[in-house]
Amino acid sequence: MKNLLYSRFWRLHFFAALCITPLLLSLTLSGIGYLFFTDVENRLYDDYFFGNSHKEEVLTIDEAVEKAEAAFAGYSTTKVIMLEEPYNTRLTLSNGNEQKYVFLDDQNQMVGSQDANYTFSNIMRNTHSSLFIGGTFVNYLVELAACWTIFLLLSGLYMTFKGDLLKKRKSENKRQKSKRYHALVGTIITIPMVMFISTGLLWSAFQGSILANIASESPTFGYPLLQQKPPTSDVSEIPWATRQLEAPTSEGEHAQHHGGGSVRYTNDNQMTIANLEKEITAMNIAKPYSIIYPSNEEGVYTVAKASNSGVTGLDVKPTDEATMYFDQYSGKFIDQVNYEDYGMLAKFFTWGIPLHEGHLFGWPNKLLNLLVCLAFLAVIVWGIRTWILRRKKGELSAPPQISHKISLPFVIFLIILGIIMPLFGASLIVVVLIEYFILGWQTKKKLRAEETK
């Protein structure tokens, strides 16, 4: 039974690794790139982030918004990102699914602009999450690779100790040595890798949406409810814990009419950003923060301080997160959600995501993540090398299929992982069907061979 369990793990471990290794290489390399995106962008986009237009005329922020929209026909400003010195102010302009970043100096004069799709941070992020292709299928595929990586780590841990793979033999050949290194480094990084993958799954397409729904339906477990209509504007710079919160509505002569859209809503009665800034300053809200425009006539100005914004210079400490709502007509403060208001799950996310991205505790966090990523790449390389040294010419040399009765511990282990990671569980059904089909085909082939004798 014990040998059967080991054989089951070995076969599934082998084929899982064979299938997802290309994705793991992409995820790991893009993850390393994203670890240092702030450092890279501070140098790569120095003129945009810290440059000066050398124009003497001082514009108001609202005049700057109008000039930016005039410069990019069809685009409307959805966010104003106020950063600490020496960073320039950043505008986010949207036109359907397209976005541009516009940078303003101290005079609110335009310094330059970027296509949001092709900034270093967004290229790394989109490659990491969707192979820079996008779409639900690709997102699920990447998430599935992450789920199976957890299986690889845990099954590898079992095989390492069960097979006594860490013991150095007196006369090791190249394959045995490579296998021992594969097992040794894999064992060392199992806990940090499972932790990194788990925090990465927090905002994945399938698992992430399930967790977000759990958080939204349970204020104690997730985050507090605001009993109003949810915003429809883009919310990528809002803290994770409040991105799906129902926001308050504004009071005004148009406030009882329902409507909305994918771009910001403006009218003559709407408070200017310049005046809103005065309200923000009066509340002692310090930079950095983002101002998200209302998306309809009932909407509100949302002012957010987030620890996982993905914008260079915008992140704050998890405990400093806050989401504030202001009436779009009067500028009156309506409501606020702070870190202290989060439930257990939301607080876990708020700490977990910056840890995953490598900026929770500065350079030590980056270096720790980098070391784990490099070690994981080494595990992949040693795994491939072990297989190549074992493989016979012209053959796959996969672990043999076991036709005996499947072991109960193996089934229980897979069921537990399938419950924790539903997408992994769904893929297991496909794997079982394939294995059953192959086993049946091999059995029939064997019977035919015996009949012809």
UniProtKB/TrEMBL annotation:
UniProt keywords, alphabetically: Membrane, Transmembrane, Transmembrane helix
Transmembrane segments: 12-37, 137-161, 181-203, 367-389, 410-438
Region of interest (Disordered), ranges: 246-266
InterPro entries noted in UniProt: PepSY-ass_TM
Protein name: Sulfite reductase subunit alpha
Organism encoding this protein: Lysinibacillus fusiformis
Upper taxonomic lineage: Bacteria, Bacillati, Bacillota, Bacilli, Bacillales
